Amino acid sequence: MFLDVKYNEKKRKERESMRKFFAAKSPEITKRELEHMELARAVAGECMVLLENDGTLPLAAGGKLALYGMGARHTIKGGTGSGDVNTRSNVTIEQGLAEAGYTITTGGWLDRNERKRTAEKDAYLRWMTEEAERRGCSPFLVSFSDPFAEPAPEMITEEDWRASETDTAVYVISRNSGEGSDRYDRPGDYRLYPEEKEQLAFLGRSYAKVVLVLNIGGVMDLSEIKEIPGIGAVLLMTQLGNIGGQVLADVLSGRVTPSGKLTDTWAKRYEDYPSAAAFSHNDGDVDDEYYTEGIYVGYRYFDTFGVKPLYCFGYGKSYTEFAIRTENVVVKNGQVILSVLVKNTGSEYAGKEVVQVYYSAPEGTLEKPYQELAAFAKTGLLAPGESEKLEIAFAVRDMASYCEKCASWVLEKGDYILRIGSSSADTQAAAVLTLKETVKTEILKNLFADAELPEELHADCTGAVTDDLCDAETMEEPGCDEGAAEAVEENGCGNRAAEEPGCGAGAAGGATQIPHILLCAAEIETRQAQYMEERELYTTDQTRMLTLADVKNGTCTVEELTAQLTVEELAELCVGTLRADGGSIVGNASYTVPGAAGDTSALLQETRGIKNMILADGPAGLRLQPVFKTNKDGELLPGGEILGDSYVSFDKNLEESQTDTYYQYCTAIPIGWALAQSWNLPALERIGAMVGREMEEFGIDLWLAPALNIHRNPLCGRNFEYYSEDPYVSGKAAAAITKGVQSCAGKGTTIKHFAANSQEDNRYFTNSHVSERALREIYLKGFEIAVKESQPFSIMTSYNLINGTHTANSRDLLQAAARDEWGFEGVIMTDWFTSQEQPALTGEAKVKYPISASTGCIYAGNDIQMPGCQKNVDDITEAVKSGREIDGYSVTLADLQYNAANVIRAVCRTSR
Ligand code: BGC
């Protein structure tokens, strides 16, 4: 496949002359690699969630172990597509357990299974190549739309059992998924293969101890497993990077006590998810996706509508037990501060506990979910009998809901019940906060109207909103004493607390002494967003040629430097590049760092000192080309490009003496979903800092991660990259990772995919119809938290449309929401090939919506089109010079300068 990339011989030569490779020239494993694997291992143990345990775990040290299941020898380290990481090695479960001293006695079965898998994989690879020829595209595109599915495992026989000579079996189910296609609610994917069911039943009958390990990247149906007798423990391993086997051994052997908690609700049946019927391919329509469940995503739905899940949000067992006691709740300076004592009440194992704080907002005129996560904290490692006091805080204003009718965030008057516990179902009411007057916390404007949105999608937004609510003015409350508390005898703390949430346990019942605390409406500030209207033209009186060095030493401003650039130069800066001569693997683009996903324009490097920024995926580590070669003149040679099952070989006739070989081995960290399940934000910061150090080593400026789309439905192919169904967890995780990366000077993150990118089928053209309230409370909230808390260097827009407008072209999303409302100061870029016709990439099928417009990106403030093509540069230049509308958008010189200045600011931040 040839991609019309922004590339020409002159630019290539320019680049060649300024090339500097950062990669190592020795193939030896480095100290950094070893240290980072240890660091990842230390965190990854906390990412696993123990779902079931009847005492089977932990296993006795050493001894014989029967190991079965597809993931035993083919342990999946992370999902496929751009989120994959090319590592030097991948420790499988078989290797990890053997290393930990276990004797695997099912070698015969593992070998047979290996032969079966190899045969199926070979057949798939042959088909992939032929199919690519048939479609006239690159094989990697075939692997995107039709990825290899792990086959059903080889039969387990009585003979295998006899030969295993042990009473303990570990069975590993694995599932893979990735970008470009969604999963299916069918056997071998969301459900068990019949073979897996039979085999688990056989193991349950044959072994005294059976441990089921889930080496998966997203929720699957576990109800069927619940019905199989004899399975003593179920451990959600997920996909933990290239040290997965060692981490699993740590947990199975009890070296590490699992302390992860679910960040999703696991339903009893797929149909129980409110978006199940129409999600992606389920209803045959992949063009329009109606988010009819509104704000009721995940536990917000299950708890509110009394649908009992199999495992609730926040759930996870430990090898030990904990007692959680709220010691104090105070409200001070707009913050709710809770002191919570956690004690390890077990006698054998040390462990960590996650304390979760939920609030139930009053049923006012706006509908409210039963409860929402407000904050959480994790203890350190507590020895048996040891206690730790946690202080957990959150802002009162963060409990506000969005009212479409008055375009404001609103705290409605009434009782806010705080619940504290170890999962969303296992909580105790800890305080009631009473607000006597409704308060608008923030006055905005509605940005995402959709004429096609069915009326019922607004039911939770405007239904019973009265004028009282919208007219609410913050009143003086004479004598209001913020935080004044009185302990009262409380029987169920009001109606909402007495209702039982979907998960069953946990509603505060019976008589408990909990404080009632008064919130003063007058203390809660009402903020009003200021929106940028027209963009101002930058001018300068300086006549000498300004450079980035002048900006850095304060001789001129970024705006002045920008004002000196021609329209063509400005357009070039706003259109990124892709290596065109090396191969056809997308996301394998950078000249200076082979395997990086692309870079920004280097055109003004020599004249103005504006270097190109190098961008690499994300989010499970750095995705780079592990081995590349140059000739003795330093020119990059083709070969070594890799993306999953697609690999470009080096020319077999290359003489070693005439080439230089370079190595770029990065650490694969646990997938995003796993990281979030640790609920350990300081650990995530450490992981982020580790990635930042690898960026320093390999010369990467912006990491195309973290990814924080909401798990709206378990079948989204990229859920493994994302954190949770909950926006608070997602936003906090993304902020922690960003803080870590950005603690390395000049290195930045790119939070993606902004926004409502919940589906992979037809991903370039799918239109997400979402109410303004659901967008703001669920789909944008995580991005808002990440921007406000960690100011990432960059944002990447998504492929999809929101309510009829491509996110890449949405000035309301990028300028009004991200920049004006949240104060985002960085650069914004598109997702790859968003604004160019590439039928081979985006699909030949007749699609309902057009590709996003290049001019629309400039209009919206989407500063860099990645990777972009010559047509993008030409369209922008022509639109600005002629004043003509192109593809539906007019753009002025001021618009173009605005985008280019954002790029220059980012270059400034990343140039050290
Ligand atoms: C993905 C992005 C990724 C980009 C560059 C796209 O296909 O959607 O997440 O960062 O490729 O590899």
Automatic annotation (TrEMBL):
<dbReference type="InterPro" id="IPR002772">
    <property type="entry name" value="Glyco_hydro_3_C"/>
</dbReference>
<dbReference type="InterPro" id="IPR017853">
    <property type="entry name" value="GH"/>
</dbReference>
<dbReference type="InterPro" id="IPR050288">
    <property type="entry name" value="Cellulose_deg_GH3"/>
</dbReference>
<protein>
    <submittedName>
        <fullName>Glycosyl hydrolase family 3 N-terminal domain protein</fullName>
    </submittedName>
</protein>
<feature type="domain" description="Fibronectin type III-like">
    <location>
        <begin position="353"/>
        <end position="424"/>
    </location>
</feature>
<keyword id="KW-0378">Hydrolase</keyword>
<dbReference type="InterPro" id="IPR001764">
    <property type="entry name" value="Glyco_hydro_3_N"/>
</dbReference>
<comment type="similarity">
    <text>Belongs to the glycosyl hydrolase 3 family.</text>
</comment>
<dbReference type="GO" id="GO:0005975">
    <property type="term" value="P:carbohydrate metabolic process"/>
</dbReference>
<dbReference type="GO" id="GO:0004553">
    <property type="term" value="F:hydrolase activity, hydrolyzing O-glycosyl compounds"/>
</dbReference>
<dbReference type="Pfam" id="PF14310">
    <property type="entry name" value="Fn3-like"/>
</dbReference>
<dbReference type="Pfam" id="PF01915">
    <property type="entry name" value="Glyco_hydro_3_C"/>
</dbReference>
<dbReference type="Pfam" id="PF00933">
    <property type="entry name" value="Glyco_hydro_3"/>
</dbReference>
<dbReference type="InterPro" id="IPR026891">
    <property type="entry name" value="Fn3-like"/>
</dbReference>
<dbReference type="InterPro" id="IPR036881">
    <property type="entry name" value="Glyco_hydro_3_C_sf"/>
</dbReference>
<dbReference type="InterPro" id="IPR013783">
    <property type="entry name" value="Ig-like_fold"/>
</dbReference>
<dbReference type="InterPro" id="IPR036962">
    <property type="entry name" value="Glyco_hydro_3_N_sf"/>
</dbReference>
